[in-house]
Amino acid sequence: MEKVTVKIDGIEVQVDKGTTVLEAAKKINKLIPTFCYHEKLPIFGGCRMCLVYDVKSKRSIIACGTYVYDGMEIETENQQVLNDRKFILEMLFTRHPLDCPICDKAGECDLQNWGTYWGPQNNVLPITPFEKIRPEDDWESDYLEYVSNRCVLCIKCVSVCDNINQSHSLFQLERGFETLISPVIKPMDSSSCEMCGLCVDICPVGAILFKPFKYNARPWLLNETFTHCSLCSLGCPVVIDHDGKKIYRIRSTAELEICAKPYLGYDAYNTNRLKNPKIQGKDVSFDNALEFIGQIISQNPSKTALVVSPYLSNEVLEKINKLGITTTSIITLDLLPLLEGFGDYNPPDFEEIKNAEHYVVIGDDITDTNPVITYYMKKRVVYIGEQLGRIKKLYPNFIQAEGRGIIEKLKENVEEGSVIVYSSYFFGEDAKYLGEVLRKLQEEKNCKVVIVPPYSNGFGIVNNLKRISSFVKTLDKILSGEIENLVMFGEEISLFVEEEKLKEIFSKLKNKVLFTPFDDGLALVCDVVIPLNTWVEEDGNYDFFTGQKKSKTSIKNSFKNTEIIDKILKHINPTSNLIEGFESDFTIPEWINRFKTNIWDASYFSLRSENLTNWKIKNQEVLNER
Ligand code: SF4
Ligand code: SF4
Ligand code: SF4
Ligand code: FES
Hints:
By secondary structure, this protein is an alpha/beta fold. The protein has four domains: 3-77, Ubiquitin-like (UB roll) (Roll); 100-105 and 121-270, Alpha-Beta Plaits; 278-334 and 459-597, Rossmann fold (3-Layer(aba) Sandwich), CATH 3.40.50; 336-452, 3-Layer(aba) Sandwich (Dimethylsulfoxide Reductase, domain 2), CATH 3.40.228. Helices cover 28% and strands 19% of the residues. It has 19 helices and 28 strands. The strands form eight sheets. A seven-stranded mixed sheet has the order 14-13-25-24-23-15-16, sandwiched between helices. The mean pLDDT is 95. It binds iron/sulfur cluster (SF4) (3 copies) and FE2/S2 (inorganic) cluster. One iron/sulfur cluster (SF4) is lined by residues 160-161, 165, 167, 169-170, 193-199.
């Protein structure tokens, strides 16, 4: 790459040809204020906040949209630049209500910050607050609110929706000073909007508000934890804002990778949490409950089985391994047979996925299962599945098929070098067959195969457990009386087994032990229930689709999942003679519920979110209609 040298405020910096002045300035930590610029969005150049001075051409230029040339000299703080900045801010403040005390964005608002540094320090025009009022636009949403007279018309919200999420849910209404940002369809909750919150997060001022957060907290009073979302296998970088006890919001980082599952679904972690262990509905101490579980396991290790959730961290899975009793998971139904069919699976590099020319998505709609991966699908897309749903935003070539017909259509529609993206749909034998076909297509057509389970740590179970027994056979053993005690980590069993069958299975058990974050649902029908931390309450590594990443603690509970298992281990003598190895379910009985992930109901966490549940009611109707 050809290099050019540019001088910024007297400091020489060498950058690649094609670098903008703003990017070059960042390299030497020069702060140039912006409104409409974001490094992941196309350059718009509309706000002029980033004006700097080009010494050679003797004029002001925009830093965000001007490329450096060799020998360029830039001044970012001379009197003309300061005058330009002040003028732009004067223009904005002329129409902007100074309602910072009641504006949610106060404390993290670019206009407030730039105004403090470079703006006019008094009212420049004799204009009353009433004269500042602009036409309003009601977005008719329970979640997003537009405050028109705070809007600085940077258009980043429209751009992020068009260029990142690609759902094209916003547009500019009217012209000039009367311009408003409006949803393409109202009510907004019934539109193609995916409630990713990116427009809220990227808005430099308080013009788009997240209603559940409104008036709830001041950002400077909250702690922010940078972590990885562990609600699907993508592991997107997100920020959790909390006060140590409660989560107030989960938002995107500068990577702009977030979907509704954490954005709307953050409320699940504040709701109906199990605080104390219980035996037969009565609160007991951790020590008593764990000793009791230890007794159950040690008295009858061969009559006890464990079910592990694919949302547990690697650290917890490693400890569970040591318990040395029959362990199963719902991944034996879908992911495990798929991987068995495929053989040694290594995911392609994320950059290769982003830069592909042709994507073939198969099975369940990836916009529901792993929404953020669709933000990177910007070239030709073929979708082979039962029904064209939310993925229609990518304008795919839709090929309707079901069952193994999807795999046959896949063979016909891949091209040399296609990226094949698969999350879920196939179970048992079908999943294994898909794995075999994918392997062949990878070898023969040089395809890149992207397997992104709808849950976060399916790969972690494969990588960390030494043995996994069949889910179906384990439950069959309960029905035949061979297994009498079931210890469940997480609640997948209630999603993947039909209700009547689950009742029958539970009726055969002597002891139903449940580790769960929630004091409802399955907890109400189990004999022993123990609180479980989720990804927001305990540090843990997860094997996401492109490798291991860490989720970090934001809320600290008084216990740790890993310590709990250590305590159980003290009460048992783990001398397992179980044979190591993985047992997939190739035959799927009728009573297995083929749980289908969608953006609202993705996991036993999401199902607890009031925000997601209410949005589902409004949004489901519209998806069915279109
Ligand atoms: S929430 Fe996301 S999908 Fe909806 S309008 Fe904002 S950016 Fe677009
Ligand atoms: S709503 Fe916010 S992001 Fe959108 S144009 Fe207005 S100021 Fe910019
Ligand atoms: S795509 Fe997956 S990892 Fe990313 S924010 Fe959504 S649920 Fe979380
Ligand atoms: S940030 Fe450069 S023109 Fe808006």
